[in-house]
Amino acid sequence: MKWTEFAGWGRRVADWAQEYHLTVGDRPVRAQTRPGEVLDALPATPPETAEDMEQVFRDFEEIVMPGITHWQHPRFFAYFASNAAAPSVLAEFLVAAIAPQCMLWQTSPSATEMETRMMDWLRQAIGLPDGFAGVIQDSASTATLAAVLTMRERALDWRGNQQGLPGQTPLRIYSSAEVHTSIDRAIWISGIGQQNLIRIPTTGDWRGMDPVALEAAIEADLAAGLTPAGLILCVGATGTGATDPVADCLAVARKYGLYTHVDAAWAGSAMICPEFRPYWQGIEGADSVVFNPHKWLGAQFDCSAHFLKNPDDLVKTLAISPEYLKTHGAEGIINYSEWSVPLGRRFRALKLWFLIRAYGLEGLRERLRNHVTWSVQLHDRLAATPEFEIVTPPMWSLFTFRYVPEGAADRAEDLDDLNLRLVNAINDDGRIYLTQTRVDGRIAIRFQAGQFETTEEDVMMAYDVITEIAGTLG
């Protein structure tokens, strides 16, 4: 295809995208294809000669689209939504067209300086105090890895990168069992090792870390000659929305000199609403905080906001500057590749600029508040319905429940199987999409409202689908 043909195809793709978003609610939410079906439809060998774009686009619609689970569906209630608000998609179109490589200030000054400004807009929006600086990572997993590497280097007095871990006193990182598995991966990749990730018991409806147990674990490790290095807290964990008592846990961490990271990948977006900030009271005491605007806030994936109280620690951990990456003759610049694990960087700030300007913070707040309100209404209806029980209460727009028909409550394995059958039947039906989790070892069904275009009618429809299909299982 030539650039002289691009505008025509661009208009066609834009028309297709608009129609897709306007009608996606008419499709089954989850892909209905069988394993291997898409693979078998794709030729085993690449074409030797150019193919007509009409055929390529036709194959996209006939082969690719049937195998897509529609994350932009208004009744996508599984996992956490990965949104794509219209202004964000337009920004990504422009970024794809200009295709800048934004690893250094000099390789794209606009990208660097807009990232600085957009991260400060987000800092103000979620109520973090002056002094926090931010960088856009690809995902919360990368931000957490960067934080764990910083924990490692600070605890080893910056010797780890040069000397490695052999011969060093084992480092200990503390978290609850509710944190995302990206924490485990960060521990593996950093070389700290799974056995040195210490799980602290949780308490209360929020299923948050017990600060007393945290301090006891730190004291036990010190007595054993080990080195406490860092604390990872969660605000709105994936399974149940579990949230640690941030202020109390950070106080313990400060007492022992631990580097602290707060993973608020999903729920951090809610902090643009001041009434939700008590959930992370004390956040200003953290060293590192991450949340994903590409989840609840509406930005196109990937876009993870990573805030740092002292960026110098992160830069000291990650920066490496061969001559070909140096910028001479420019003072006071930031090279964000020194704040990230990858060298290459996308122009992610542009979609935040488009998104925030197109809706304003109040427009974004209204969406989040609606999701929370509607989710609580659904929770209340299920709680009042015979044969359903609430397992964990609403945390923002997330709660978990279980189907417990009469006579089934005492058969744990059978009840787990029944609820898995219910989830699978709901997803095969296609009108809504849910996922399951485990709470205290038992299967529970998750509900979370967060798709950008979800309506109250969509959320209330979930009640009808859940109760209707449960009634068919017997």
UniProtKB/TrEMBL annotation:
<keyword id="KW-0663">Pyridoxal phosphate</keyword>
<dbReference type="InterPro" id="IPR015422">
    <property type="entry name" value="PyrdxlP-dep_Trfase_small"/>
</dbReference>
<dbReference type="InterPro" id="IPR010977">
    <property type="entry name" value="Aromatic_deC"/>
</dbReference>
<comment type="similarity">
    <text>Belongs to the group II decarboxylase family.</text>
</comment>
<keyword id="KW-0456">Lyase</keyword>
<keyword id="KW-0210">Decarboxylase</keyword>
<dbReference type="InterPro" id="IPR002129">
    <property type="entry name" value="PyrdxlP-dep_de-COase"/>
</dbReference>
<dbReference type="InterPro" id="IPR015421">
    <property type="entry name" value="PyrdxlP-dep_Trfase_major"/>
</dbReference>
<protein>
    <submittedName>
        <fullName>Pyridoxal-dependent decarboxylase</fullName>
    </submittedName>
</protein>
<dbReference type="InterPro" id="IPR015424">
    <property type="entry name" value="PyrdxlP-dep_Trfase"/>
</dbReference>
<dbReference type="Pfam" id="PF00282">
    <property type="entry name" value="Pyridoxal_deC"/>
</dbReference>
